[in-house]
Design a protein that fits this description.
The protein is an alpha/beta fold. It folds into two domains: 245 residues, Aspartate Aminotransferase, domain 2; 113 residues, Aspartate Aminotransferase, domain 1. Helix content is 40%, strand content 15%. The protein has 14 helices and 14 strands. The strands form four sheets. A seven-stranded mixed β-sheet has the order 2-10-9-8-5-3-4, with helices on both faces. A hairpin with an 8-residue loop joins strand 13 and strand 14. Helix 2 runs parallel beside helix 10. The chain is globular and about 65 Å long. InterPro entries: Aminotrans_V_dom (IPR000192), PyrdxlP-dep_Trfase (IPR015424), PyrdxlP-dep_Trfase_major (IPR015421), PyrdxlP-dep_Trfase_small (IPR015422), SP_NH2Trfase/AEP_transaminase (IPR024169). Its cofactor is pyridoxal 5'-phosphate.
Length: 387
């Protein structure tokens, strides 16, 4: 097949050796061989998240959202109350997950594309003593915002509450250290910055909190982390039939990440993002967010004037590039370009050339024509969400 350059935030383009690992031998998940593989992957993920000695990891056959749901549904006890921190689609999704399980929720929301201020979170926790747990999205991919995980984790810990983090789009690239930051529950996935294949996700949580799930009625069945933890940590087997080939691929992907290091991967993604953003700026595109708030692996920007996302996507896809639509109220004004996965600098340059072709093929449009209107001030925040 002709290589299609994926510029969407997962699933990402992967290395040949990761894809080839999928063709490993057929293996029964109840055999000791798979138990050993499961143990190695769990250990690598715990170490990657900075949790060796304090945390444990449960691996699930699911999307990243499946891991987020398992973390939220399992972390909060029957008498718990959640404060959801929301500045984008995925913060709102964590609230919706909690509500779907009947968990009482308090909302802390700011407009999409605005940073969450740890001082404001501290004040809200002081005013709501009934809150037991706080949810946070580290990399809010609806806007490409990188939220202040260390700062927010600090105030949550100081307030004596428990923190549940969606790190689906950040772990493996951005700085994540569950022990140092004081993160109690963290959800991640294999097919974004880990550069593995889709199909596996995981929850890394404090070991004592995982052990405490014993004897507590679980919410749901397949998302009950207590059930998965007992099977994986104690019996050395999965609770249910897993996607065995994706474990082979994830082990290879984790080995590659250990060689590159998280800091090295963040630097590589950052160089690609700088190349992309500089090229977009030269073409007059308004890139969203203050530079200090942008993730290393994703860029959100305005659509070209007069060109809808469907036309833009079709034109780029015909040239071998896949970009990503923005969500909800941003859908008609913005789109997103990811720089995660095995993308190269040459592919970024070729994408910019393809973007030029698509824009030029649209009559009477072009970002340069509206540069003055668009750049009346720094493009810091995207469209606000209704209160």
């Amino acid at each position: 097949m002709t290589r299609v350059v994926l510029l969407n935030p997962g699933p990402v383009m992967t290395a040949d050796e990761v894809r080839e690992a999928l063709a490993g031998p057929d293996l029964c998940h109840r055999e000791a061989d798979f138990g050993d593989l499961l143990a190695r992957v769990r250990h690598e993920l715990t170490d990657l998240c900075g949790g060796t000695g304090s945390h444990g990891t449960v691996v699930l056959t699911s999307s990243g959202t499946g891991a987020v749901e398992a973390a939220v549904a399992s972390a909060v006890p029957p008498d718990g109350v959640v404060l959801t921190l929301e500045n984008g689609h995925y913060g709102e999704r964590m609230r919706q997950i909690a509500q779907s399980h009947g968990i009482p929720v308090r909302r802390f929301e700011v407009p999409w594309g605005r940073p969450l201020d740890a001082r404001d979170v501290a004040a809200r926790l002081a005013a709501e003593p009934q809150v037991t747990h706080v949810t946070l999205v580290h990399h809010e991919t609806s806007t490409a915002m990188l939220n202040d995980l260390p700062g927010i984790a600090r105030v949550v810990a100081d307030a004596g509450r428990s923190l549940v983090v969606d790190a689906v789009s950040s772990v493996g690239c951005e700085e994540v250290d569950v022990a140092a930051h004081g993160v109690d529950w963290l959800a991640g996935t294999s097919n974004k910055c880990l550069e593995g294949m889709p199909g596996l996700s995981f929850v890394t949580a404090r070991a004592d909190l995982l052990d405490a799930l014993d004897g507590r009625p679980g919410r749901g069945y397949t998302v009950d982390l207590g059930r998965h933890h007992r099977a994986q940590a104690r019996a050395g087997v999965p609770a249910f039939t897993p996607a065995v080939p994706t474990f082979y691929a994830l082990e290879v992907a984790l080995r590659r990440l250990r060689t590159e290091t998280v800091a090295g991967r963040r630097a590589r993604y950052g160089r690609l993002a700088d190349l992309l953003r500089d090229g977009l700026a030269e073409r007059g595109f308004a890139v969203h967010l203050d530079p200090a708030e942008r993730a290393s692996s994703l860029t959100s920007l305005d659509l070209p004037p007069g060109l809808g996302y469907a036309e833009l996507h079709a034109g780029l896809r015909a040239r071998g590039y896949v970009v990503y639509a923005s969500q909800e109220h941003l859908r008609d004004q913005a789109f997103r370009v990811a720089t995660m996965g095995t993308l190269t600098e040459d592919e970024v340059r070729a994408f910019l050339a393809a973007l030029d072709e698509v824009v030029a093929a649209t009559p009477r449009t072009g970002p340069r024509h509206e540069r003055e209107r668009r750049h009346t001030g720094p493009s810091h925040a995207v469209a606000p969400v209704a209160p």
